Amino acid sequence: MSAALEIRPLTATLGAEVVGVDLADVDGSTLDAIRQAWLDHKVLVLRDQHITREEHIAFGRRFGDLEIHPFATGTLGDSGHDEIVQITSKPERLVAANTWHSDVTWREEPSMGSILRGVVIPPAGGDTCFADTAAAYERLPDDWKDRVDDKVAVHDFVKTFGRGVPPEKMEEMRATYPPARHPVIRTHPDTGARGIYTNRQFTSHVEGVDDEESEVIINRLERAILDPSVQCRVRWQVDTFVMWDNRAVQHFATDDFWPETRTVERVTVVGDRPY
Ligand code: SIN
Questions:
Q1: Of 138, 143, 179, 185, which is most buried with the most CB atoms under 10 A?
Q2: Which of 157, 238, 170, 233 is nearest to 201 (CA)?
């Protein structure tokens, strides 16, 4: 499908609704236009995409290899869709990724991007918020930029997924997924923009400083992400797809919809080693 895309920005630097795309039928030039819009706006929202799970996976694959999440495989049972992570929240158990983060930063080569579909959407609430990590960095005072520019932080799955790993499997998982070291401020490989790359969900500490200074740095950078002026917010509908660039944004799923059910399904594109 090669109709011209209509791009409706949500803010000047972050987020856009994309109109005129059918994800079941994306030709090469439309894919190029989506790729460029993704780099320009970092978060894309595509409504009314009535595609199958296979088509969701196939669309994700056009951007690179898809991740099989070691701590969230089989969320769709034996359906054969291991590339899809389903996140569901029910009245008996509220589930929401309600901490600012980018996906799988505990990997040596964390995710380039995520493509999430709304499957069951509550009548009110359950929005996902996004923060532009380069805009957040840009707004830091110069002395803070100097303080964090050359720092490296350690990211560890145990902080979030450790609770779900049986003690007898922990050693094996630790050996397979050792703590990863990433720059505190990473450079986007395509745009060259520099953005904050620590998060409370997976960053265990900043190297080369004492615990207190590490906490001060992680807190200050989180405060920069929390500024509503660097954020946008997406209201979901069933079959809305949201694609975000994990190298350029952090996200936060609101948990303001209980006792309603909310189900979303994500494919995650593998990325490069941050620098
Ligand atoms: C996620 O963190 O990938 C899920 C976001 C959401 O549930 O909106």
A1: 185
A2: 157
